[in-house]
Amino acid sequence: MIYFDQAASSFPKPKEVVDQMIDVVTHLGANPGRGGHQLARKADMIINETRNKAAALFGCTNPKQCLFYPNATIALNQAIKGLNWQKGDHVIATSMEHNSLRRPLEYIRNNFGVDVSYIDWQENDEQFIQSFQQEIKENTKLIAITHASNVTGSLIPIDAILEIAHLKGILTLVDASQTAGHLPINMKKQGIDMLVFPGHKALLGPQGTGMLLVEGEVLLSPIHHGGTGNYSESIEQPEAWPEKYESGTLNTPGIAGLLAALKHYEKNKTEIVPRETILIQKLYNGLKQIHDVQVYWTDKQPKQIPIVAFNVKDISSQELSMILDSHYQIAVRGGLHCSPLAHQTLNTLEQGVVRASINMYNTEGEIEIFLQAIQQIIDAYENI
Description:
Layout lengths: L1 E2 L11 H13 L10 H21 L7 E4 L2 H10 L8 E5 L4 H14 L2 E5 L5 H11 L4 E7 L11 H11 L2 E5 L11 H4 L3 E5 L11 E5 L37 H37 L4 E3 L11 E6 L4 H12 L1 E2 L1 E3 L4 H7 L6 E5 L6 H19 L2
Parallel strand pairs: 1-11, 3-4, 3-5, 5-6, 6-7
Antiparallel strand pairs: 2-8, 7-8, 9-10, 10-13, 12-13
């Protein structure tokens, strides 16, 4: 199997990730923060080490404000729904948002009367930044923005947006679901108030892991309530971080795997970007040379994470994905990718797109096989 669906979930995982998870399940198995015995203490040490590692890698000042969730979606829900919304508040996002960010925004629009603006993304940084500036109002409370499109891989110019937000005193939330593990991120230096990322994509960690990192003083109400291990005498949710936002037993095996993944990223991050850039450029250039292939990537936007979105003729993207899977043993993703706003922007709501996404474990040989497969499929359709 050639696996070109890395933007959905990375595969394979580094050996140290797998080994660490097996070790925890086999030899630990205790609840972190629930009990004073040695196994519980060891589990707690893994949790705390992972917080510290995430804080160091992503520039978050206080590791206690590095929060664990089952995925980035729940972390985004906490970040958005946890703010104190009032009727008439205003949020700015982009037309490339994943539903994991858009749907919580629509929730606060419908339930609290919050005004939400989606800035159209047309692969033009200067125009996009200008549109953002023009949309800011006196009541703009939050800028919630994806770092890169999960459909096209286009990088959004977040640094300029973050600088504008900082000058205006507007809170910022960055969805790094597609960039954490591909690109360096530093919350303190870049002015990110809240950062969300999953463990299972470019970081090469396990599914069932996600984090919300909060820099500085951000007032959030927890969206979940329950047992926190500490402060059991109180019937109220504790005020201390991280307990206030982490009810229930944490996924210790998953977080142990995430810790191994963060260490793997720290060790290899200087090699990841050049290799991925070479591979995705080869894939892009190869697809552009094939007749009847439309690639949704412009040379005006050179900054790109390793994703290429494309269509072939008028073939359904899901049909093409099924052919690649069943006849060529190649895994890609077809459809709308949980991002209908992005497809509305691309005018691909009806057909969707085929998304091929790679990482450091893919090879040039796999890309050559993939390009040959696309050409063969086109030839077969022309002969029908």
